[in-house]
């Protein structure tokens, strides 16, 4: 094989966005080593944000690429992966904005934190386009190991150390189970690692009824469910969210979850097309459990970070509605809701960070009367929380409407009704926080609010928090009203992805066949009755 042929098959241009992030990572590390910790903390956040935004621009130019396959089939840069990678990169941008003042106050190095965050971003972006078993596992572990390090980054905090250890132990077990499922796929397919070839070989060898294939499916779903924090694989979520640095929690709730859903779609749709009904059933059960437990248990929380942790579990249940209904509208509404969740959830976390920086607490009771001292923070945090609950005309309302509409069109009536009921429950605990901030009289203020420091934005790092808060609130407020272009973008991503089109076509053909068989049976019964 000559060099030109090899270069054409590698098609390295497909990973240009990831290459930009890698170069940014190297620049941050080398620059920190050259100029020192104190000097680098002033410019490395800007470099990281610039590199991530450049990666988003590169993704824009890769939309609907003529040849998205790269590295001999290991990576697929199709339109679906472009959208997922864009969401992950944007979540990293906002995480950098919210992390500067927090990390400076903790007394740790900003450049090292940014290096680990960029590494996690690279892992998530590669995972979104991984189309081969080795690429999937390496990308997943890159994201996971970096997440463990981020969780325990404030090493002087015992809660952060405990959260990191729990996350590491449970995550390592989950990775081992997931890897065992991939190894079963490798063996059943006769030694293939590319997902499409695995499905073809399993179909040819007649391994469809094999117990090993069912075990592989169960183990793969277990690994995916851990990454998206779905019940019953959610046990790590509340403790990690409460103990980890708040910017890290924000990234895990959006970036890591988005990568998990990208993996779920690509792996389940491509490698298990003959077990579609089975994985739909399992994911439906996980969605039901996540909706119920996440939203019900959130009612009893007294900490904002734990409330947002159980909220994240419930939100995973909403997103899974788009995954299990197996329609183009379902996948498009999933993408749109993840984009909406990016801004409204990270906006809520920025509000929590600002309050904790000024008061040193994240207890919900300590928010009492905040409107009297900080009306801007109260307004922004209220908008983000109400959007998470699905209050119109905010973007969260339209995200849920699209999900429920797609589910209703697909006949998932029970799942949609459960989603509506749990949405009402979620509105209660979100409004409880808003009520605590707004309705309390001056004499009912908490001690933290009474001792609230003078509001100023000229402290180091607070300017970036202000930019992040304003940006997320603007998008949360306006993206719902202007949602049609965003939903069209998500729908185009689904329609331009051959993997999903093949799956949807096969599903429609199966449904047509079943309808034809039912009609034939009815006709045959009528003939017998006349006879």
From TrEMBL:
Residues 130-426 form the NADH:quinone oxidoreductase/Mrp antiporter transmembrane domain. It is found in: Cellular thylakoid membrane; Endomembrane system; Membrane. The keyword Transmembrane applies. It comes from Stenomitos frigidus AS-A4. Coiled coil: none annotated. It comes from the Bacteria. It is a multi-pass membrane protein. The lineage of its organism: Bacteria, Bacillati, Cyanobacteriota, Cyanophyceae, Leptolyngbyales. This is NAD(P)H-quinone oxidoreductase subunit 2. Belongs to the complex I subunit 2 family. Its EC number is 7.1.1.-.
């Amino acid at each position: 094989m000559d060099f030109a042929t090899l270069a054409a098959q590698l098609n390295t241009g497909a990973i240009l966005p990831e290459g930009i992030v890698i170069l940014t990572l190297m620049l941050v590390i080398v620059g920190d080593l050259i100029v020192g910790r104190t000097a680098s903390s002033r410019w490395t956040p800007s470099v990281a944000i610039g590199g991530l935004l450049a990666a988003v621009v590169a993704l824009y130019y890769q939309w609907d690429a003529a040849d998205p396959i790269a590295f001999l089939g290991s990576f697929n840069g199709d339109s679906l992966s472009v959208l997922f990678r864009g969401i992950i990169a944007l979540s990293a941008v906002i995480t950098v904005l919210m992390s500067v003042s927090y990390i400076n106050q903790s007394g740790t190095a900003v450049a090292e934190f940014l290096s680990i965050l960029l590494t996690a971003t690279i892992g998530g972006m590669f995972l979104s386009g991984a189309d081969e078993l080795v690429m999937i596992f390496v990308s997943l572990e890159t994201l996971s190991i970096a997440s463990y390090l981020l969780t325990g980054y404030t090493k002087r905090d015992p809660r952060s150390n405990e959260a990191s250890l729990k996350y590491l132990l449970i995550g390592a077990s989950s990775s081992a189970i997931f890897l065992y499922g991939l190894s079963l796929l490798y063996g059943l397919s006769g030694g293939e690692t590319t997902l499409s070839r695995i499905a073809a070989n399993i179909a040819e060898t007649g391994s469809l009824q094999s117990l090993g294939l069912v075990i592989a499916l169960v183990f793969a779903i277990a690994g995916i469910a851990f990454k998206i924090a779905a019940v019953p694989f959610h046990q790590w979520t509340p403790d990690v969210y409460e103990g980890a640095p708040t910017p890290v929690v924000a990234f895990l709730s959006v970036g890591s979850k988005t990568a998990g859903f990208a993996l779920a779609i690509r792996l389940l749709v491509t490698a298990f097309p003959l077990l579609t009904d089975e994985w739909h059933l399992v994911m439906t059960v996980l969605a039901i459990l996540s909706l119920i437990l996440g939203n019900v248990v959130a009612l009893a929380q007294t900490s904002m970070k734990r409330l947002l942790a159980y909220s994240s579990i419930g939100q995973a249940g909403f997103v899974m509605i788009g995954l299990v209904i197996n329609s183009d509208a379902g996948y498009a509404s999933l993408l749109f809701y993840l984009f909406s969740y990016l801004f409204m959830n990270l906006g809520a976390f920025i509000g929590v960070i600002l309050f904790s920086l000024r008061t040193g607490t994240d207890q919900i009771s300590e928010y009492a009367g905040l409107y009297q001292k900080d009306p801007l923070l109260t307004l922004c945090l209220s908008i983000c929380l109400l959007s998470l609950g699905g209050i119109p005309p905010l973007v969260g309302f339209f995200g849920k409407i699209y999900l429920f509409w797609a589910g209703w069109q697909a006949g998932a009536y029970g799942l949609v009704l459960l989603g509506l009921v749990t949405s009402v429950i979620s509105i209660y605990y979100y409004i409880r926080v808003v009520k605590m901030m707004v309705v309390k009289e001056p004499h009912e203020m908490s001690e933290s609010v009474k001792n609230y420091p003078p509001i100023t934005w000229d402290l180091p790092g607070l300017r970036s928090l202000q930019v992040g808060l304003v940006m997320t609130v603007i998008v949360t407020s306006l993206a719902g009203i202007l949602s049609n272009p965003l939903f069209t973008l998500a729908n185009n991503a689904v329609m331009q992805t051959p993997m999903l089109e093949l799956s949807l076509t096969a599903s429609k053909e199966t449904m047509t066949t079943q309808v034809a068989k039912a009609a034939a049976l009815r006709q045959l019964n009528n003939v017998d009755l006349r006879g």
